[in-house]
Amino acid sequence: MTSTTRAARGPSRLQLPEDGFNHPFQESECDVGPHQGKEHPRTIVELRMCALSNRIREKPDWWEKMEDETGEDANPEWKLTPGMVGPAERVWKSDKLIPSSLRERLLAAVAPLESVPDSEKDWHPGSDGLVLDLVHPSLYPIVYERTMSKNPGSASPTVVEAPEFCDPTFTSQTFQWLPSDFSVDPNGKVTLASPYINNVHPTRHKDICSVIPEILQHALPMFERVLSDAIRPLLPMRIATSGLYGEETADCIWDGVIPCPGSLNEEDQEAWLDKHPFKTPDAREHYDGDLGVMEDRISLRDRTIQVIVKLANIVLTPEKPEYPGGKWHVEGMMNENIVSSFIYYYDSENISESRLAFRRATSEPHAHEQDDSKCMRVLYDMDRDLPLVQNIGDVVTKAHRCVAFPNLYQHQVQPFRLEDPTKPGHRKILVFFLVDPTQTIPSATNVPPQQREWVTEAMHSADGNSALAKLPVEVLTMISEANDGTMTRSEAEKYREELMAERTVFVEANDQDYFGFEFNMWHIFMIAFHMTGEQPGEASPPSNSPKPKLLSSASRRERKGQVKISQ
């Protein structure tokens, strides 16, 4: 069905996948085709086109300037051809999603968490006093075999058990972040269905408990966009022809190049290739991207969703004027089954421009010849023995902006610093991590609060007519300490250190096994022969194509790890 036909009949509702969404919590396989969310890579040319489009869309009221006829005589180097469309796919952003009145309420609700004495401020471990945690899921997480859970139909709580039959590389046997359940009615109104949000006191910080569902309600359409994108293929390639298996791939750069003499040695062949220009791919003359399918969407209405909440500030001072940036990572582990993240940059002051970068693991591109390193570098910035990963773009993280993206993508906070180094500055974020809506994990609905001080405080403030009010303070304290389902603040901080250490190991394993899978051109070449019925000894490059040179091991070592695409 064409995009025109789809547009004429209007958008349709997509169904949630029965087997859940693709995720990065697994080892890669040596596979040519897409699997578990890994599509074929885009060419560098196409990625740069998308980056240019994204830069244009950063301009205020860019859609009006695009229609401005006075721009007809603008520098042609800055003009878009009809084949150039779209920023990074599956990444959504908005600067007008959250009403200013709701933002002001959030600022006021969070203020009590920020105004605690310095001795009580919770600086994120390992952040060198730059990241202030206000609400963080690593504090008071589920601790398997210790955290208690209420069971339907039973008066006695039981411990939450660790997952069974799971790969321990990607599934924790000790911890799980604790989400809250939110009910979405048929009209899209969101309410908190759980008794509390982890690390948000239900009475002292009731304003936060009130404003969070309202912001989540505004975030819902962006989550729906991300999930809808996640269950359909990427848009058709803007630079492609039919390739192996009938799938789209880019033309070989050697097509039409004067063949170099067969008598040349490797060094002379390299010099020959450097002197003779090759053919770089260009966009299709006609391209609509089948954009009509983008209107078909998953709906999260009339269901309960599970969301993990995070509030944090990055605080810079003249003594510490720069944030060095973060590591490439995905959120959570298989335990949380996070499918999408939503970040609301609700306040910034005196900081330089900052960006959130994205990259995705890809399947192996179609090699046109055995060991055709130069062609792969020119087309995809990929080479043998280097990770099959592509930097697909970044988003400016300015104040009031909302960004949503799939957890299949790694993301990385880019460095930023104080604009005026003599004054302090900050950036404040609210983050929602959406659990796969086809799955259900233990939540604040069945896991009572684990903060022992909350329980103690509740008992001491009990109604005067209750039995608790008649007990001595010492007895109430003994009851609180005997509660196996709670933990002290110091215990929670110790568990946080263990959780962070565990997830540091996971990030490294995830980098190696999913995002660090290496490009094996010989494997691709052999599969191509298998598909065509030829034998390696019978194959030969096209008569008008020079034989690509082999990279030396020294050259490969020099390029090892250089996977960032220049933009």
Task: Describe what you observe in this structure.
InterPro entries: DUF4246, DUF4246_C, DUF4246_N. Residues 1-38, 534-567 are annotated as: Disordered. Residues 18-70, 88-457 form the DUF4246 domain. Residues 540-554 have a biased composition (Low complexity). The chain is of the alpha+beta class. The chain is 26% helix and 17% strand. The chain has twelve helices and 21 strands. The protein has helices spanning 3-9, 44-57, 62-66, 100-114, 206-230, 266-275, 373-380, 452-460, 473-481, 489-513, 521-532, 553-559; strands at residues 13-14, 92-94, 131-135, 142-143, 148-149, 158-159, 175-176, 180-184, 190-192, 241-242, 248-249, 297-298, 303-316, 322-323, 338-349, 355-361, 389-396, 401-406, 410-413, 416-417, 425-435. Strands 2, 3, 8, 9, 13, 15, 18 and 21 form an eight-stranded antiparallel sheet that branches. Strands 17-16-19 form a three-stranded antiparallel sheet. Strands 1-12 form a two-stranded parallel ribbon. Strand 8 and strand 9 (190-192) form a beta hairpin. It starts with a helix and ends in an 8-residue tail after the last helix. Mean pLDDT is 77; it is low at 1-9, 29-35, 76-87, 241-246, 524-532 and 534-567.
Mean pLDDT across residues = 77
Secondary-structure-derived class:
alpha+beta
Strand content: 15-25%
Low-confidence stretches: 1-9, 29-35, 76-87, 241-246, 524-532, 534-567
Fraction of residues in helices? 25-40%
- How far is the first residue's CA from the last residue's CA? 35 Å
Number of helices: 12
- Gyration radius (Cα, Å) is 27 Å
Shape: globular
Let me know the largest β-sheet: 8 strands, antiparallel
- What is the strand tally? 21
